[in-house]
Design a protein that fits this description.
- A hairpin with a 7-residue loop joins strand 3 and strand 4.
- The longest helix has 9 residues.
- 33% of the residues are buried.
- This protein has a single domain, classed as Peptide methionine sulfoxide reductase (Metal Binding Protein, Guanine Nucleotide Exchange Factor, Chain A), CATH 2.170.150.
- The chain contains 2 helices and 9 strands, in the order H-H-E-E-E-E-E-E-E-E-E.
- Helix content is 12%, strand content 30%.
- The protein has 138 residues and is mainly beta.
- The strands form 2 sheets. A 6-stranded antiparallel β-sheet has the order 3-4-8-7-6-5. A 3-stranded antiparallel β-sheet has the order 2-1-9, with no helix packed on it.
- The protein binds zinc ion.
- Zinc ion binds next to loops.
- It catalyses: L-methionyl-[protein] + [thioredoxin]-disulfide + H2O = L-methionyl-(R)-S-oxide-[protein] + [thioredoxin]-dithiol.
Length: 138
């Protein structure tokens, strides 16, 4: 099994497109409202585009109108890493893939969304790959 944490920057550049590399490996942010999964409502599982680990499910995706795919919970807490991000003069919580440590987005708490957690995992579409499949019983 590949140890994704040992992949070098130059290897990531070969594996990813320039836009994917910028977001996943340089903690970039795609522009709002343009990502392919912003408004997706299909049943399925969203995996890390860099390493393929399943991260989020459509059952936890909700319509936040913020311009990026939003989830109120990851598929499982150990799939992701959350760490403090003090870039851009703000204190935010960055969300990374636990398997390959690629940047996914940020998580925001207490915004008043009508979801079970009142968390908004604001994730770049380009960090994800959706596999459409029925989720009955998962
Ligand atoms: Zn990953």
């Amino acid at each position: 099994m590949t140890d994704f944490k040992l992949i070098t920057d130059s290897q990531w550049r070969e594996r990813l497109s320039a836009a994917e590399y910028h977001v996943l490996r340089e903690a970039g942010t795609e522009p709002p409202h343009v990502g392919e999964y912003t408004n997706t409502t299909s049943d399925g599982v969203y995996s890390c585009r860099a390493c393929g680990t399943e991260l989020f499910r459509s059952t936890e995706k909700f319509e936040s109108h913020c311009g990026w795919p939003s989830f109120f919970s990851p598929l499982a807490g150990d799939k992701i890493i959350e760490r403090e991000d003090r870039s851009l003069g703000m204190v935010r919580t960055e969300v990374l893939c636990a398997t390959c440590e690629s940047h996914l987005g940020h998580v925001f708490a207490g915004e008043g969304y009508d979801t079970p957690t009142d968390l908004r995992y604001c994730i770049n579409s380009i960090s994800l790959t959706l596999e459409e499949r029925p989720l009955d019983g998962e």
